[in-house]
Amino acid sequence: MTSEQKALVTATVGTLRAHGVALTTHFYRRLFEHNPELKNVFNVGNQQTGKQQTALAMAVLAYAENIEDPSVLVHAVTKIGHKHVSLDIRPEHYAIVGRHLIASIGEVLGEAATPALLDAWAMAYQQLAALMSGIESGLYQKAVSQEGGWTGWRPFTVKQKVAESTEVTSFYLYPADGGKVADFLPGQYVSVRLFLPELNLFQPRQYSLSSAPNGEYYRISVKKEVGSQHPNGMISNRLHDFVREGDTVELAAPAGDFTLETTKQTPVVLVSGGVGQTPLLSMLDYLTLTNSPRQVVWVHGSRNAQVHAFQEPVADLIAGYENVEQHIFYDTLTPDVERANHYAGIVDLQQLNGGTLLPEADYYVCGPAPFIRKQVQDLAALGIPREAIHFEEFGPATLSV
C-alpha cells in the first residue's frame, strides 16, 4: 500500500467507530443475498444475536487503526485464523467476501466513498486476506501433517452419550473410517456440522474438547438449551434430542489458541462458569493424567448441584492428586451441599485470596462474557499481571477486557 492509501484508510477510523456495526450488518445482508450458499458456512445464530456483526466491525476498526503496522494484530488475527480453519474457510472465500465488503463500504458511505478511498480499502483488504490466508494455510498444513489429521469435514460416529448433569451431555466421537484422531492441545475445540431441517441449512458450531487427547476419540460436552429457538440452541438441542449412539456427525479438525501452556511449570488456576468448564476440564484431565508436578486450583461456578456437570469425574481426577484443590460456588447453598470449599453466590476470587490464589500462576478463565469480564477485572484488582490471564469467549470475540 502507498502512504496515501494508508492515510485514506486511517481517515475512516472515526466513521468505523461510529458506524462500523451498521456497515458490517449491511455487508452480511448483501453477502447472503448474493451468495446464499454461504449461509451453510456462517453460524446463523451469531448473525441473529449481532455478535458476528460486532466482531467483524471491531476487527475492521482494529485493522484500520493499525494499518501502518498490522503486525501488532498477530494475536487477534491468529485467533480468527483458527476459527476460519474450524469452519473450512478457503482462499476463494476471501475473494467473495472482499467483493461484498468493498461494495458495502461504497453503498453505506455514499458520496464519501471516493474511487480513491475504495481503491485504498480494496488494497488494504487484499493485504489482510493474504495475511489471513497465509496463517490458515499453515494451520491446514499442520493439521494434515500429524497422524490422524485432516482438513475439511470428516464423519465421526457417536459411540456414547453420557449425561453429566440435568443439562449437559457428553458425546464420545470416533472416526467413522476407523482411523486415528489427531492430538490436540488442552483447551482447543472442534466444529460440529449438522443439517437443521428447521432452517434447511447445514450449520456449524464450535464445542470445546472436554477430555485430554488420547488418539482414539474426541469428547464434547453439550448443554441443552431448554426452549431455545435460537440456531445455536437448535444445534445443541438437536444433538441432545435427535443424535443417537451410532449416528454420524461431521467434524473439522481441532483448532483454537486458548490452550494450556504444557511446557511451563508454573501453578495453574482454572476458573469456569457453567458449561465454560469444558476446555478447562481438558486441561485438568491432561495435568492429572500426565502426573504434572504443577500446583492446580480448580474454581467452578454453577447455579446449583443439579446442573453442576462433572462433579464425580472431577473428584475422580483429583483423588490422590495432592497438587489440586477445588472450590465450588453455587447461587444458593442448600443443606446437602454446605461443606468445605463450597460457597454461596457467583464465583468471587476475592474470597479465595487468603493464600488460595497461587503466586506466579497462570489463570485460565472460561464462561459467559459477563463472567469473564468480572473474573479478569477481579484478577487485575488482585495484582495478577495481564499476561498471566488467559480467557476464552464462546462465539465471535467481542470482549476487550
Provide an overview of this structure.
Helix content is 40%, strand content 19%. It is built from 11 helices and 12 strands. The protein has helices spanning 3-10, 13-34, 44-49, 51-65, 74-86, 91-109, 115-145, 231-241, 277-289, 311-318, 369-381, and strands at residues 154-163, 168-175, 189-196, 201-208, 218-223, 248-251, 268-273, 296-302, 324-330, 342-344, 362-366, 389-392. The strands form 2 sheets. A 6-stranded antiparallel beta sheet has the order 4-3-6-1-2-5, covered by helices on one side. A 6-stranded parallel beta sheet has the order 10-9-8-7-11-12, sandwiched between helices. Helix 2 packs across helix 4 (51-65) and helix 2 crosses helix 6 (91-109). It is globular and about 70 Å long.
Average residue-wise pLDDT: 90
Element order: H for helix, E for strand: HHHHHHHEEEEEHEEHEHEEEHE
N→C terminal distance: 32 Å
Number of strands: 12
Strand residues, percent? 15-25%
Cα radius of gyration in angstroms: 22 Å
How does the major sheet shape up? 6 strands, antiparallel
Shape: globular
* Structural classification: alpha/beta
Keywords:
401 residues, alpha/beta, 6-stranded antiparallel sheet, 6-stranded parallel sheet, 11 helices, 12 strands
Short description:
By secondary structure, the chain is an alpha/beta fold. It is built from eleven helices and twelve strands.
How are the elements arranged and paired?
Layout: H1 3-10, H2 13-34, H3 44-49, H4 51-65, H5 74-86, H6 91-109, H7 115-145, E1 154-163, E2 168-175, E3 189-196, E4 201-208, E5 218-223, H8 231-241, E6 248-251, E7 268-273, H9 277-289, E8 296-302, H10 311-318, E9 324-330, E10 342-344, E11 362-366, H11 369-381, E12 389-392
Helix pairs in contact: 1-7, 2-4, 2-6, 5-7, 6-7
